[in-house]
Amino acid sequence: xxxxxxxxxxxxxxxxxxxxxxxxxxxxxxxxxxxxxxxxxxxxxxxxxxxxxxxxxxxxxxxxxxxxxxxxxxxxxxxxxxxxxxxxxxxxxxxxxxxxxxxxxxxxxxxxxxxxxxxxxxxxxxxxxxxxxxxxxxxxxxxxxxxxxxxxxxxxxxxxxxxxxxxxxxxxxxxxxxxxxxxxxxxxxxxxxxxxxxxxxxxxxxxxxxxxxxxxxxxxxxxxxxxxxxxxxxxxxxxxxxxxxxxxxxxxxxxxxxxxxxxxxxxxxxxxxxxxxxxxxxxxxxxxxxxxxxxxxxxxxxxxxxxxxxxxxxxxxxxxxxxxxxxxxxxxxxxxxxxxxxxxxxxxxxxxxxxxxxxxxxxxxxxxxxxxxxxxxxxxxxxxxxxxxxxxxxxxxxxxxxxxxxxxxxxxxxxxxxxxxxxxxxxxxxxxxxxxxxxxxxxxxxxxxxxxxxxxxxxxxxxxxxxxxxxxxxxxxxxxxxxxxxxxxxxxxxxxxxxxxxxxxxxxxxxxxxxxxxxxxxxxxxxxxxxxxxxxxxxxxxxxxxxxxxxxxxxxxxxxxxxxxxxxxxxxxxxxxxxxxxxxxxxxxxxxxxxxxxxxxxxxxxxxxxxxxxxxxxxxxxxxxxxxxxxxxxxxxxxxxxxxxxxxxxxxxxxxxxxxxxxxxxxxxxxxxxxxxxxxxxxxxxxxxxxxxxxxxxxxxxxxxxxxxxxxxxxxxxxxxxxxxxxxxxxxxxxxxxxxxxxxxxxxxxxxxxxxxxxxxxxxxxxxxxxxxxxxxxxxxxxxxxxxxxxxxxxxxxxxxxxxxxxxxxxxxxxxxxxxxxxxxxxxxxxxxxxxxxx
Length: 839
Description:
Helices cover about 60% and strands about 0% of the residues. Among the domains are: about 20-180, no CATH class; about 185-280, no CATH class; about 655-830, no CATH class. The longest helix is centred in the middle third of the chain and has 29 residues, at about 505-530. The two termini are about 45 Å apart. The protein is mainly alpha-helical.
């Protein structure tokens, strides 16, 4: 948890700019040779350097102030010398001060150990006398110069009769000065001022300059909420500067440590995934620097130590802090909650129980859910399994009506992980029946529990919570109780394992799916044998014929028979993983499973054939399944068919194969129009028209493109979107990759499409249409017309003139099976592929 409070006042600092003090003293008690107040010097100047500086600045003027101003200045000087920064500074006390116009030249010298004097430049002088690096000195000098210029400008404005305007600017100037000490806000509204690490100079400490640059970033913390980039940049800058900082930890101000802790310990896990490791490192550095951690910081540091693997050391540190942190009301609860979690995970269950008793029996407010790690630790051992159940009961009693479904899920998950199946089942029964049904110790389950509907709800909840392994344990356990899961429930479990994509889970999914397929094939084989015999056969329970399970595997025999969904789930997995041989084995099993053929499995096999260079077999499978086995194709079927053409498979185009693709593509299109199918998903609704148009474009079938566009407009409600027009104009579908060639293609294509749209708008305007207020139907017609014009441009680029192309449109319409459809409203309505409104 984050620190409870950062009661820091960074608006107060012991540092006062020496030049300011010098100028203020000169304003009160003018000397014969007053120093310029804007010429900044270090506090430890030697007498010799100070005399040289006074001689070099003898041109400065004497300033005389009124008694009231004199008194105010004396008060201001006293505050600054005491390390106090006033809430507001009345700059009007300086408005009568005369500021010299000309530049002042100052030379610096230093006497070495050998007694010789050598000249110094400004950077060397700053390092020698003040310890400030050049970057800090330059920033301060720049700020002072801006202040002088601002005051000079205000004085001139007032002397020129612009008192009102000058007063407004003076107030703005004072406000901006005050804001210099604010800008960053901690999680509990602390205000951090100018955060900076000084005392390091030279090229070897550039990493510290980078860290200072990060600390000066205005957007680091605003309203107490750092951004994910701020957290990452913070650790990047700090880790790079650690080596340099370790040479002089004392140069890091307390304010910087506190601010780094706020960012590094930010609790949002998605934005700070390495939080505990960073806290561990930062806490070690702060200890090395002699920084005393606050109680809340110590708790976080102990937790980070435990997470990083120093478990015994963390627990020992926690024990030692019982008198300091564990006895304070503000940290009492957090202290014992941390101890309970660490002790439970470390296996010290007895001490964890005592800590839990101390916490729950105290008057401090505590959450009974802290018993969850104790329940987990008790359930892990056979000797304490019953105590884990008692602890769960106690937590439930303490929560009362506050016990939520998510709490039951957590308890069930802990019991399943420890293989306490009876406890897990009883906890789920408690959740479903509010504790009114007790099944513990019973060999025969009540009817309310002993049914597939009840099992299905439990499995669905476990799978939805991302625990397919726990769901499988439930299936095995309930089978021993005489309750078998249904194929639908097991299909869900198989799908969950496959979605996890881990090798172990995928293997479990395949094993269970093939067990279901074998059960299906056995049932079909037995049914065939029974139909050929006069006497009915008596089935022998195959559960007893199965080989004995190994010690690692639970005893389970799958009696649920595979369905079409089982084959489809496995087929999709094999196809996506490129396991063509396994897919063919699955297809052979499917043909013997006596299940009505489905288009999904056919589509997956066609897709796999095409990906493995067997496009002809994919097409043969399509004709065989649709003609001989009465499989109804769908949109994915025709998508797979068009992808079998050579222009979609081969990198190097073959002109002869492209000519064959023209005829095959028109044939596939005719079959697509004739087949009785409907769009059922938005994704394929957008992909199929795009694939068809690009296929014909690459094959050079411009007449077919025009007919396809008109047909899809009538049957699919297809209107080419602007991105598709741009891709077709560029002649490539890979414009998302930003290469130099693609950028040039996009620019040319964009100009072409814009010109076509402009020409079409001009023609519409000549027809009397208001091109600025087109209806949705008129806009769709415009896009279709632009597409046709674009196709004509593409054809002309290949020496095919529009007059030569138009006579081929009727031929293309006949080959594509739409010659008698496009002008017949009845035929169009009969062949439409849209269900409702697919977007």
